[in-house]
Amino acid sequence: MQIMNLSSHSLFRTKLLFSPYLFTTLLAFIFFTAIFYVHHFFIFSQLTPFSTFHNLTQFPSQEKSNVHKVAFAVEETKERCDVFKGRWVKDELARPLYEESECPYIQPQLTCEHHGRPDKDYRHWRWQPHGCDLPKFNASLMLETLRGKRMMFVGDSLNRGQYVSLVCLLHKLIPEDAKSEETFDSLTVFTAKEYNATIEYYWAPFLLESNSDNAIIHRVTDRIVRKGSINKHGHYWKGADIVVFNTYLWWITGSKMKVLLGSFDDKEKVIVEMPTEDAYRMAMKSMVRWVRLNMDTNKTRVFFTSMSPSHTKSKEWGGKEGGNCYNETTPIDDPTYWGSDSEKSIMQVIEQVFRKSKVPITFLNITQLSSYRKDAHTSIYKKQWNPLSTEQLANPASYADCIHWCLPGLQDTWNELLFAKLFYP
């Protein structure tokens, strides 16, 4: 009622008093609305969602980041999509991501086409997660992210295969005179000179010091690891900006593992046997502790690649008795398949150690999806280091390599998953 009785002069004065405030408010509203739409435009157009390494390192775990929440809201709508759960689909248009002949960095143990593999379908399978798509691998973005940085793969020959795959995915964007690869004992370094960047591989099959540490001569049956010895190798890992660890295959020697309590230089060595799971847990805890003490996780991204499966018993997927991956040309289509070569007890150890750890390590769970790919191994199509006997030649399955993977092939998918977790963690 009081407002109704105000004079027109008072009303005019009120407008003059409040108009500047209303005008400022309106301008602020327009400004923030514009920012909101521009921000969402860039996200939906997928223009480098984490376009600089600064962004990546600013949110190392990405679990509490608002940027992380927005990215997932776009990529995965209401629920997170588990990119490690899905199926293999044939894709002859987009696969392979490169040709074997185009990448001179593939080792002769992995060049299946060059060594006469007749079928080519193994190169044309694409991993399709349930409910979402993997981001397309962007080699330019990856190289820009690595500018002035070190990326390192640490582990056994399966991790070396992933390293080679990544180099193959990137090297075509680098001029011939601006890239090189050198090996120094256990360390192999690929250098992209224009980017001042290196992608490195370090041979350490147990992560801990062992009697299998020679990068060339390491095929020993009586394997021994030294307790508390991760610093022996860790010295070479310091300063890396992205690290991808793996270790599994070399631990599978039986139900027990030999562990050295002293030094390999001791005249009288104290060696104990312990269950493989306990020895593996010891190594995993050492790795986590080493990361905590030696890496700034605000600046470094750390990954761990899970067990790479073997396919040595074809009976497990409905094949004949005594067979293996030899002559296999299609993936396993049973979504519940899990081969006995992938020790679930080891997987449980990894889960237990990571669950208790406060160190942010991203887990690349490639085991199940790789278990389907009985067709993707090098089999007999690789360089043979020793002459084959008449008996072996008569039975190719007897010397088929059902551990390592052809390139291009499965391990390119591992790097697509690494790329997804690096930029959409």
From TrEMBL:
Membrane-related topology note: Single-pass membrane protein
Cell location: Membrane
GO MF annotation: an example: O-acetyltransferase activity
Domain (Trichome birefringence-like N-terminal) ranges: 79-133
An annotated GO cellular component: Golgi apparatus
Keywords assigned: Membrane, Signal-anchor, Transmembrane, Transmembrane helix
Keyword Membrane: yes
Transmembrane segments: 21-42
Domain Trichome birefringence-like C-terminal: 134-420
Family: Belongs to the PC-esterase family. TBL subfamily.
PANTHER family for the chain: PROTEIN TRICHOME BIREFRINGENCE-LIKE 32 (PTHR32285:SF282), PROTEIN TRICHOME BIREFRINGENCE-LIKE 9-RELATED (PTHR32285)
Listed name of the protein: Trichome birefringence-like N-terminal domain-containing protein
The species this protein was found in: Lupinus luteus (European yellow lupine)
Organism lineage string: Eukaryota, Viridiplantae, Streptophyta, Embryophyta, Tracheophyta
